[in-house]
Design goal:
Layout (H helix, E strand, L loop, with lengths): L2 E7 L22 E7 L5 H10 L12 H6 L6 H15 L5 E7 H11 L10 H8 L3 E8 L2 H14 L11
Parallel strand pairs: 2-3, 2-4
Antiparallel strand pairs: 1-4
Protein backbone atom coordinates (compact mmCIF):
# COMPACT_ATOMS: atom_id res chain seq x y z
CA UNK A 1 0.00 0.00 0.00
CA UNK A 2 1.36 3.36 -0.96
CA UNK A 3 0.06 6.53 0.67
CA UNK A 4 0.94 10.16 0.32
CA UNK A 5 1.23 12.39 3.38
CA UNK A 6 1.33 16.15 3.18
CA UNK A 7 0.98 18.81 5.84
CA UNK A 8 -0.38 22.28 5.69
CA UNK A 9 0.17 24.50 8.69
CA UNK A 10 -2.58 26.90 9.54
CA UNK A 11 -1.73 29.85 11.77
CA UNK A 12 -4.07 30.72 14.56
CA UNK A 13 -4.94 34.22 13.41
CA UNK A 14 -8.54 34.42 14.58
CA UNK A 15 -9.17 37.34 16.92
CA UNK A 16 -11.91 35.77 18.99
CA UNK A 17 -12.53 34.45 22.43
CA UNK A 18 -11.39 30.85 22.54
CA UNK A 19 -13.94 28.91 24.57
CA UNK A 20 -11.71 25.86 24.98
CA UNK A 21 -8.17 26.89 24.23
CA UNK A 22 -8.12 29.35 27.14
CA UNK A 23 -9.79 27.00 29.57
CA UNK A 24 -7.97 25.33 32.42
CA UNK A 25 -6.35 22.09 31.37
CA UNK A 26 -4.40 21.54 34.54
CA UNK A 27 -0.63 21.58 34.20
CA UNK A 28 -0.74 20.58 30.52
CA UNK A 29 -1.63 23.62 28.39
CA UNK A 30 -2.84 22.95 24.85
CA UNK A 31 -0.05 24.49 22.76
CA UNK A 32 -0.04 22.63 19.45
CA UNK A 33 -2.56 20.43 17.76
CA UNK A 34 -2.73 18.46 14.55
CA UNK A 35 -5.48 16.69 12.68
CA UNK A 36 -4.90 13.68 10.45
CA UNK A 37 -7.40 14.12 7.61
CA UNK A 38 -7.97 11.04 5.52
CA UNK A 39 -10.38 8.74 3.80
CA UNK A 40 -11.08 5.18 4.87
CA UNK A 41 -8.50 2.54 3.99
CA UNK A 42 -5.73 5.09 3.40
CA UNK A 43 -3.36 3.90 6.13
CA UNK A 44 -4.51 6.48 8.67
CA UNK A 45 -4.92 3.95 11.49
CA UNK A 46 -1.36 2.72 10.99
CA UNK A 47 -0.07 6.30 10.85
CA UNK A 48 -1.95 7.31 14.02
CA UNK A 49 -0.85 4.21 15.95
CA UNK A 50 2.75 4.95 14.96
CA UNK A 51 2.43 8.61 16.02
CA UNK A 52 0.96 7.52 19.37
CA UNK A 53 4.05 5.39 20.02
CA UNK A 54 6.41 8.30 19.38
CA UNK A 55 7.26 10.63 22.22
CA UNK A 56 5.93 14.11 21.67
CA UNK A 57 3.14 13.33 19.18
CA UNK A 58 0.06 12.94 21.36
CA UNK A 59 -2.54 10.20 20.99
CA UNK A 60 -4.30 10.80 17.65
CA UNK A 61 -7.52 8.87 17.37
CA UNK A 62 -11.08 9.32 16.08
CA UNK A 63 -12.47 11.20 19.07
CA UNK A 64 -15.47 12.36 17.04
CA UNK A 65 -16.47 9.06 15.42
CA UNK A 66 -20.23 8.90 14.88
CA UNK A 67 -20.56 5.87 17.18
CA UNK A 68 -18.78 7.73 19.98
CA UNK A 69 -20.94 10.82 19.51
CA UNK A 70 -24.11 8.72 19.66
CA UNK A 71 -22.93 6.61 22.59
CA UNK A 72 -22.11 9.72 24.63
CA UNK A 73 -25.33 11.49 23.55
CA UNK A 74 -23.45 14.63 22.49
CA UNK A 75 -26.10 15.84 20.04
CA UNK A 76 -28.30 18.66 21.38
CA UNK A 77 -26.21 19.07 24.52
CA UNK A 78 -23.58 21.81 24.10
CA UNK A 79 -22.41 21.51 27.72
CA UNK A 80 -21.78 17.80 27.28
CA UNK A 81 -19.90 18.48 24.02
CA UNK A 82 -17.65 21.04 25.74
CA UNK A 83 -17.12 18.71 28.68
CA UNK A 84 -16.16 15.89 26.29
CA UNK A 85 -13.65 18.17 24.54
CA UNK A 86 -12.13 19.08 27.91
CA UNK A 87 -11.95 15.39 28.84
CA UNK A 88 -10.15 14.36 25.66
CA UNK A 89 -7.70 17.24 26.05
CA UNK A 90 -7.04 16.28 29.69
CA UNK A 91 -6.47 12.61 28.92
CA UNK A 92 -4.76 12.91 25.56
CA UNK A 93 -2.40 15.85 25.87
CA UNK A 94 1.18 15.00 26.49
CA UNK A 95 3.49 17.07 28.65
CA UNK A 96 4.67 19.26 25.75
CA UNK A 97 1.09 20.40 25.08
CA UNK A 98 0.65 18.47 21.83
CA UNK A 99 -2.77 17.11 20.94
CA UNK A 100 -3.49 14.95 17.92
CA UNK A 101 -6.73 13.67 16.45
CA UNK A 102 -7.94 11.95 13.32
CA UNK A 103 -11.05 12.79 11.33
CA UNK A 104 -12.60 11.61 8.12
CA UNK A 105 -14.79 14.05 6.21
CA UNK A 106 -18.09 12.85 7.67
CA UNK A 107 -16.66 13.02 11.19
CA UNK A 108 -15.54 16.59 10.56
CA UNK A 109 -19.06 17.49 9.41
CA UNK A 110 -20.49 15.93 12.60
CA UNK A 111 -17.91 17.83 14.66
CA UNK A 112 -18.98 21.17 13.14
CA UNK A 113 -22.64 20.32 13.84
CA UNK A 114 -21.76 19.63 17.48
CA UNK A 115 -19.61 22.75 17.81
CA UNK A 116 -22.35 24.99 16.43
CA UNK A 117 -24.60 23.89 19.29
CA UNK A 118 -22.37 26.03 21.53
CA UNK A 119 -23.87 29.55 21.53
CA UNK A 120 -20.47 31.30 21.16
CA UNK A 121 -19.66 29.18 18.09
CA UNK A 122 -23.05 29.18 16.39
CA UNK A 123 -22.13 31.78 13.74
CA UNK A 124 -18.43 30.91 13.37
CA UNK A 125 -17.02 29.70 10.08
CA UNK A 126 -15.54 26.20 9.98
CA UNK A 127 -12.03 27.65 10.17
CA UNK A 128 -12.94 29.88 13.12
CA UNK A 129 -14.37 26.88 15.00
CA UNK A 130 -11.16 24.92 14.43
CA UNK A 131 -9.07 27.91 15.55
CA UNK A 132 -11.19 28.32 18.67
CA UNK A 133 -11.01 24.70 19.76
CA UNK A 134 -7.64 23.54 18.44
CA UNK A 135 -4.98 26.29 18.71
CA UNK A 136 -1.97 26.08 16.42
CA UNK A 137 -3.73 23.45 14.30
CA UNK A 138 -1.74 21.72 11.58
CA UNK A 139 -3.50 19.52 9.05
CA UNK A 140 -1.91 16.27 7.95
CA UNK A 141 -3.54 15.06 4.74
CA UNK A 142 -3.23 11.38 3.98
CA UNK A 143 -4.41 9.76 0.78
CA UNK A 144 -3.85 6.39 -0.76
CA UNK A 145 -2.33 6.56 -4.21
CA UNK A 146 -3.99 3.40 -5.58
CA UNK A 147 -7.68 4.32 -5.59
CA UNK A 148 -8.81 0.95 -6.98
CA UNK A 149 -7.05 -0.99 -4.21
CA UNK A 150 -8.53 1.42 -1.69
CA UNK A 151 -12.05 0.85 -3.04
CA UNK A 152 -11.60 -2.93 -2.96
CA UNK A 153 -10.21 -2.73 0.58
CA UNK A 154 -13.16 -0.54 1.70
CA UNK A 155 -15.67 -2.94 0.12
CA UNK A 156 -14.08 -5.94 1.85
CA UNK A 157 -13.96 -4.13 5.20
CA UNK A 158 -17.62 -3.16 4.86
CA UNK A 159 -18.64 -6.72 3.99
CA UNK A 160 -16.58 -8.41 6.72
CA UNK A 161 -16.76 -5.74 9.41
CA UNK A 162 -12.95 -6.00 9.82
CA UNK A 163 -11.42 -2.55 9.48
CA UNK A 164 -8.03 -3.39 10.95
CA UNK A 165 -5.67 -6.30 10.58
CA UNK A 166 -5.28 -8.18 13.85
CA UNK A 167 -1.93 -7.80 15.58
CA UNK A 168 0.46 -10.75 15.42
CA UNK A 169 -0.85 -13.53 17.61
CA UNK A 170 -4.47 -12.28 17.51
CA UNK A 171 -7.19 -13.99 15.48
Amino acid sequence: MSSTVSTISQSNSALMKKPLANSSLGDKPLANSYMVCSTVRSGSTLLCKTLAQLKGCGQPTEYFHRHTIQQLSLYNDPEKFLSYCEDIFQHSLINNGTFGLKMHRRQLEDFFTLARQVPQLKTYSDKAILDAIFPGLTFVYLRREDGVAQAVSAALATQTGRWEKPAKGEH
